[in-house]
Design goal:
303 residues; alpha/beta; Arc Repressor Mutant, subunit A; D-Maltodextrin-Binding Protein, domain 2; 3 domains; 5-stranded mixed beta sheet; 21% strand; disordered C terminus
């Protein structure tokens, strides 16, 4: 007799999304043998082979590919039914996740906007590194994610914000009016280095290494606001992500210095959602509209 176990379906979909039994086991807090056993049991129940096994590698079979939308629909229906029965008196919850820089400089403005246009919804927010946010998105623990570029067959993404890393100085710094700054001139200026996993500092280090010049690194910090404060207090210059200095640049408290002739660090922010099973299209569309306003206004003027 055919019997369907939701745990087996979830194990199958985790392996599909994460392309790994090991990663699926970690995400589900299970052992690898348990995940493997659930997949095999599901195959036996369905009477088909979901994966083609070659050594340790797994490749979706044609039957496995065809079964994905049905598995997703069953899981989604089950989750929605469970949510309705347990919390039918509460508003529908939309979970938004973002990497750390986006969390600090964009999310505080988009969340009130979304609540204003969708008062019937409740919004939950999660901040985490990009890889964690992606995993939560694939596990359907997050509905919409703001993160760096992601390439995954199950994820739709749309470029939202320019968060390029820029060299900024304080007003009155000699670089303010100077063009075509050399690497040697840059190395001679006191500098604050902001260490953060969300952008690649190796690009900055490599700039000086290639020229065989040691930069004058006076400060090394792991908090973006500390790095910005050092520059605002005219103690150093530094490289900072665009989102973090949007207001200060507009008010003239910081000055962007063009270094495009020697270094460009592009760091776009994307909105991401699953290709299937996404149930909040209006929220997605409103986010895209809000970004246009965000780009054209000062942070402090958006309420």
């Amino acid at each position: 007799m055919f019997k369907l176990n939701i745990d087996h379906l979830e194990a199958f979909m985790h392996v599909v999304h994460l392309d790994s039994i090991h990663k699926a086991a970690e995400a589900l807090y299970l052992s690898q043998p348990t995940v493997t056993a659930r997949i095999k049991t599901l195959e036996q129940d369905l009477g088909i082979q979901l994966f083609i096994r070659k050594g340790r590698s797994l490749t979706l079979s044609e039957e496995g590919k065809a079964f994905i939308p049905y598995a997703e629909q069953i899981i989604h229906t089950y989750q929605q039914g469970k949510k309705l029965l347990k919390r039918e008196e509460h508003a529908v919850e939309v979970v938004i996740g973002a990497n750390n820089i986006t969390s600090q400089y964009f999310i505080p403005f988009v969340l009130p906007f979304l609540k204003k246009v969708h008062p019937e919804l409740r919004f939950k927010f999660i901040s985490a590194p990009n890889e964690v946010i992606l995993e939560k998105l694939l596990q359907k623990q997050v509905d919409i994610a703001f993160m760096e570029e992601v390439s995954h067959r199950g994820v739709e993404r749309q470029k939202l914000l320019n968060n390029d890393v820029k060299l900024v100085v304080y007003p009155g710094n000699p670089f303010q009016l100077q063009k075509k700054i050399s690497i040697q001139q840059l190395a001679d200026e006191p500098m604050v280095f902001f260490e953060c996993g969300s952008f690649d500092w190796n690009r900055v280090y490599h700039l000086f290494e290639t020229a065989n010049i040691a930069p004058k690194m006076e400060f090394q910090v792991d908090h973006l606001e500390v790095a910005k404060s050092v520059i605002l207090n005219k103690q150093a210059i530094g490289f900072l992500p665009s989102l973090s200095i949007k207001d200060e640049l507009q008010r003239g408290e910081l000055i962007e210095v063009d270094l495009s002739h020697v270094l460009q660090i592009h760091q776009p922010i994307y909105a991401a959602r699953l290709l299937t099973g996404f149930v909040h299209p209006n929220v997605w569309d409103d986010i895209l509209l809000f970004v246009k306003e965000f780009k054209n206004q000062r942070l402090i003027s958006i309420h």
